[in-house]
């Protein structure tokens, strides 16, 4: 028996945007471990909540303990991790939310695939730029030390590459800038790209 076609959505993205007073979008924070992605993501989520915007943070560690718990850290597994995260982010954005993804996402091709999942330019790539040495200083989990001691194979920035974005929508200096500086830049980006109407 053939599978019946999926019914068309009864609520459009435009209708959700009117109700929410903002567009659905994916704000994708990428950078090395320790670059400040999660800190910035959570601060932005709080600020958007205070602005009555519907948002949600998808964090790499969070997904690794659940949806992606079956994946390792080979190149193929990292790509699959980001594919799953991207599919989830696209669904949240389609539901009208501002999704804040905080993922190392080391490979440019994987980030490009996520961008392709989100229609009408609603994917915003944000590079959290921070020197490796400072990321190592901030490493409360001791992951960099373990990687340098050979206890963690294929660790991004040490034994596995990180491909920095060539043309991100925004570069955040998470080494010298404050969280408030980052928030101001992110809110301006969301307003300029017509995701939000206030900042």
Automatic annotation (TrEMBL):
Q: Where is the active site?
A: 105 (phosphoserine intermediate)
Span of domain APS kinase:
23-173
**Which InterPro entries has this protein been placed in?**
APS, APS_kinase_dom, P-loop_NTPase, Sulf_AdTrans/APS_kinase
Q: Which GO terms describe its molecular function?
A: adenylylsulfate kinase activity
According to its UniProt record, which protein family does this protein belong to? Belongs to the APS kinase family.
Function, as annotated: Catalyzes the synthesis of activated sulfate.
What is the protein name stated in its UniProt record? Adenylyl-sulfate kinase
């Amino acid at each position: 028996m053939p599978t019946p076609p999926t019914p068309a959505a009864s609520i459009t993205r435009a209708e959700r945007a009117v109700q929410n007073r903002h567009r659905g979008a994916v704000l994708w924070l990428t950078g090395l471990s320790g670059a400040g992605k999660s800190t910035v993501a959570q601060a932005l989520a709080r600020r958007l909540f205070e602005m009555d915007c519907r948002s949600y943070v998808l964090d790499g560690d969070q997904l690794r303990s659940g949806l992606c718990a079956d994946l390792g850290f080979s190149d193929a597994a990292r790509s699959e991790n980001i594919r799953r995260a991207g599919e989830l982010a696209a669904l949240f954005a389609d539901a009208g939310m501002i999704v804040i993804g905080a993922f190392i996402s080391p490979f440019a091709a994987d980030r490009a695939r996520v961008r392709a999942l989100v229609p009408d330019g609603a994917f915003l790539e944000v590079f959290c730029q921070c020197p490796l040495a400072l990321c190592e200083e901030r490493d409360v989990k001791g992951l960099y030390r373990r990687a340098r001691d050979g206890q963690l194979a294929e660790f991004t920035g040490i034994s596995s590459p990180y491909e920095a974005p060539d043309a991100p929508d925004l570069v955040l200096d998470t080494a010298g800038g404050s969280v408030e500086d980052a928030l101001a830049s992110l809110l301006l980006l969301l307003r300029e790209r017509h995701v939000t109407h206030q900042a």
